[in-house]
Amino acid sequence: MKMSFRWYGEGNDPIPLAYVRQIPGMEEVVWALHDKEAGEVWTEAEIKAEMAYIESQGLKATIVESLNIHEDIKLGLPTRDRYIKVYQESLKNLGKNGVKVVCYNFMPIFDWTRTEMFHPLEDGSTALFFGKGKIMAINPQELVEMVAEESQGLTLPGWEPERLKGIKALFQAYDGMTEERLRENFRYFIDAIIPTCEAFDIKMAIHPDDPPFSIFGLPRLVNNQANIDKLLAINPSPYNGLTFCTGSLGADLRNELVPMIKRYQERIHFMHVRNVRVASNGDFSEVSHRTADGTVDITGVMNALSQIDYQGYLRPDHGRHVFGEDKATCRPGYGLYDRGMGAMYLLGSWDMAQQLNQ
């Protein structure tokens, strides 16, 4: 198991890599070229420069998160072939430079959704929060404006201003989009890129839908076992793989995470591990990684990973905002301290499971 930490780049992330390196057991930085829009090529020169900087800080850079897919591909428009070729070129450039896994998603418009960025918890910390009633009471434009205001100028993955400036037109384009049509558009995309992935030894790891149910009428493809089965069966190549996010899937209490990990063990290339506390009305709050603080059995997840001898990447996912982190200094969900503590909880659970499973 390779412990990793998401980082948004020099000049874009207030957390220096020197601090990340001080987290015991930390090996890899999960990175992206965050200034690139969906549909733009990631050039070899740009990739080499970013990887060289990360490696100069004593960390590895073999996993990428957020090589974003252009909406024309998801919509199945005639222009998709041009954007697929661009995506193939970026994959080729990443593979040639030693990147082994790309985490991505196929969610229409929004990569993830929360209704509060700094929701107060009982202990005085704050965390990301999803209010099901609130999402039903606002429109997409109001949601975009709220996220922009609360993130205080720090860009969030999937919420880039240039991507969402035409939010009304995007929703018009998706009007009538069904789950079946979206799945066929995914099939077209994944079948086109897998030969490139196999040629350059770079695995795709699709991220589950977050939240794992429809919002604003948008279809979902990666939200439960039945739909994940369909998605992985579309192309049986091991390069068509999964990012298993315990927080995204765990927000639906019907998802049995431990059996699912064992079911998909050959196709899980990346683990996002975080805890959520799910209320009876469907609201959920992110909490610490500790099992007792939420509704996700984090220690059970880590034990399952030990039992399958998981060799892939793992990162502590979103953290609370603690120890004085606030809106002015902290990207929502991506502060230093709680993710560092989360890494320690996960490594401790892993080490104990490894001893028990010998």
TrEMBL record:
Q: What class of enzyme is it?
A: lyase
Q: Name one Pfam family in it.
A: UxuA
- EC no. given is 4.2.1.8
Which reaction is recorded as catalysed by this protein?
Answer: D-mannonate = 2-dehydro-3-deoxy-D-gluconate + H2O
Annotated Gene3D superfamilies: Divalent-metal-dependent TIM barrel enzymes
Entry's Gene Ontology molecular function annotations: ferrous iron binding; manganese ion binding; mannonate dehydratase activity
Q: Which domain of life is it from?
A: Bacteria
Cofactor entry: Fe(2+); Mn(2+)
GO BP term, example: D-glucuronate catabolic process
Q: Which family does it belong to?
A: Belongs to the mannonate dehydratase family.
Function summary: Catalyzes the dehydration of D-mannonate.
Q: What is this protein called?
A: Mannonate dehydratase
Native source species: Vagococcus allomyrinae
Q: Which gene encodes it?
A: uxuA
